[in-house]
Amino acid sequence: MDGAILCLPDDDWQRGGVQPAMMPASTDALIRLKTLSKHYGSHTVLDGIDLDVRSGEVLAIIGPSGSGKSTLLRCINYLEPPDGGTITIGSMTIDAARPVARAELSGLRRRVGMVFQSFNLFPHMSVLRNVSLAQERVLGRGRAEAEERSMQLLKRVGLADKATQFPVRCSGGQQQRIAIARSLALDPEIMLFDEPTSALDPELGLEVLAVMRELAETGMTMIVVTHEMGFAENVSDTVMIMADGHIVEKGPSKEIMRNPQQERTKRFLRAVHDR
């Protein structure tokens, strides 16, 4: 679904008034990245990224392939350890310059949920068990409590009737919604989405986007790497464009999408809309 443009009514998804084109650093940031860097050999993937995300903010990250978008998400929850810089989530700061304790990683990942392009569900477990297992292992919930919470979340994503099925019996859109329920089951403060609709056809992608819109409306702090330009413009609060490991431009979503200031942003958006 790369390059697809989803058009949603502006009135339905307007999320705030006009703001300056470049937003100042927030004093109440829930997520703060300082000079975050990542290298693979001689190749620099992230080059000194500074980023603040406020509590309740929905940030959409767009940009050309290979710009470092997915790597940035994976560094935030330390699936990819950064080579330099700091990551602050609330009052907890992890510095890439020193070893990270297992307790720190556990604390970080309990606060930050992540949904990937691929669904990564356990094929030999029922949908209900896929959502319940981590609650028992990570949060220490009993099976009955975990399953009760799982059913609440499956109902929330419209899949309570699939609880006893195996993932292979579910469509791609349904499997991605199950993956979202599984992440929410650990009660994260922040959700990271790495192109969650890219492996889905447009109709199935809409199912996933509807769940993400509902999360945005409830005030969940979200960072979404996406090719869905409609979501970026009409659902997110802020759009950030990345290219070559740098932040090219960042600001209120409608302003960036309709009136970008940087030539690199203009060139990328023209390419998307001309496809």
List strands and helices in order, with pairings:
Layout: H1 10-13, E1 29-40, E2 43-54, E3 58-62, H2 69-76, E4 84-89, E5 92-95, H3 102-111, E6 112-115, H4 127-139, H5 143-156, H6 172-184, E7 190-194, H7 202-217, E8 221-225, H8 229-234, E9 238-243, E10 246-252, H9 253-258, H10 263-273
Parallel strand pairs: 3-8, 3-9, 6-7, 7-8
Antiparallel strand pairs: 1-2, 1-4, 4-5, 9-10
Helix pairs in contact: 4-5, 4-6, 5-6, 6-7
Written overview of the protein:
Helix 4 packs across helix 5, helix 4 runs parallel beside helix 6 and helix 6 runs parallel beside helix 7. The N terminus is likely disordered. A six-stranded mixed beta sheet has the order 6-7-8-3-9-10, with helices on both faces. Helices cover 37% and strands 24% of the residues. The protein has 275 residues and is α/β, with parallel strands linked by helices.
Give the overall form. globular
Rg to the nearest angstrom?
18 Å
Q: Strand-and-helix sequence, N→C?
A: HEEEHEEHEHHHEHEHEEHH
How large is the share of residues in beta strands? 15-25%
Mean pLDDT: 89
Biggest sheet architecture: 6 strands, mixed
Per DSSP E runs of 2 or more residues, the count of β-strands stands at 10
Structure class: alpha/beta
Count of helical regions: 10
* Uncertain parts: 1-26
Largest beta sheet: what is the strand line-up? 6-7-8-3-9-10
Distance between the termini: 12 Å
What is the helix fraction of residues, given as a range?
Answer: 25-40%
Please provide a brief summary of the model.
This protein is an alpha/beta fold and 275 residues long. The chain is 37% helix and 24% strand. Strand 1 and strand 2 form a beta hairpin.
